[in-house]
Task: inverse folding
């Protein structure tokens, strides 16, 4: 019988710390908390009881959480930090893909990941936040796909608060729409870096300049026009 791994925590622990202690991607933990009605960011603290429930829900039978005095836990963490400081690696950046419904967010993610997510969505519309991890140039990146339909505003806002970078997808043949504006606001409120993907450039009615003009009216000035926002014309469908 294998010995259980003991994880010592105090009255509370951050989501990032618990994920590290359990050797799980932080997105897995955030997703499990979300299923239990708890919207948590990477640095948010959860109490001991919640941590126990999450471990049970994840079926981690080889892990046991134990409550310890704060002084003991701090000492233990400082020792571990000293041991691994030289080999410490930065966490993968979290990138949320946002935009108006049907502007091609999930198709873009499918192209990046080589999957077929969009074909499995109800009506081709993302209904929840999905997390994926990929690797580019030897570095891991966590990607969040957020729903674009107007009914899912709360999920989009939560997605924005979790991220370092927000990719806002705008269809070149449709321009800036209500959920585009909303995504810009969420990203700005979360102080996330914004990158714009001007999608569907393969369409005959695509108009990149119109999209850039509409975005500049919303405070996103393209680098091409002397601003600081990267805007990339793409065709997610054709890769």
Result:
């Amino acid at each position: 019988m294998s010995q259980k791994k003991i994880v010592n925590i105090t009255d509370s622990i951050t989501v990032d710390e618990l994920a590290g202690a359990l050797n799980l991607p932080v997105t897995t933990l955030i997703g499990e908390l979300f299923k239990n009605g708890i919207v948590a960011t990477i640095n948010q603290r959860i109490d001991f009881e919640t941590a126990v429930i999450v471990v049970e829900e994840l079926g981690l039978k080889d892990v046991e959480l134990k409550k310890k005095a704060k002084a003991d836990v701090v000492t233990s963490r400082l020792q571990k930090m000293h041991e691994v400081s030289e080999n410490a690696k930065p966490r993968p950046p979290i990138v949320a893909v946002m935009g108006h419904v049907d502007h091609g967010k999930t198709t873009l993610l499918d192209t990046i990941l080589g999957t077929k997510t969009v074909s499995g969505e109800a009506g081709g519309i993302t209904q929840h936040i999905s997390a994926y991890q990929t690797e580019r140039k030897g570095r891991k990146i966590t990607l969040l796909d957020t729903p674009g339909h107007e009914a899912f505003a709360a999920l989009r806002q939560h997605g924005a608060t979790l991220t370092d970078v927000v990719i806002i997808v705008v269809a070149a043949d449709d321009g800036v729409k209500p959920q585009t504006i909303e995504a810009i606001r969420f990203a700005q409120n979360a102080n996330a870096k914004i990158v714009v993907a001007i999608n569907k450039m393969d369409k005959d009615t695509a108009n990149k300049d119109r999209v850039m003009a509409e975005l500049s009216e919303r405070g996103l000035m393209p680098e091409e026009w002397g601003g600081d926002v990267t805007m990339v014309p793409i065709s997610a469908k054709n890769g």
Notes: The chain has two domains: 5-67, 94-233. Confidence is low (pLDDT under 50) at residues 70-75, 116-128, 148-152. Residues 92 and 107 are 22 Å apart (CA to CA).
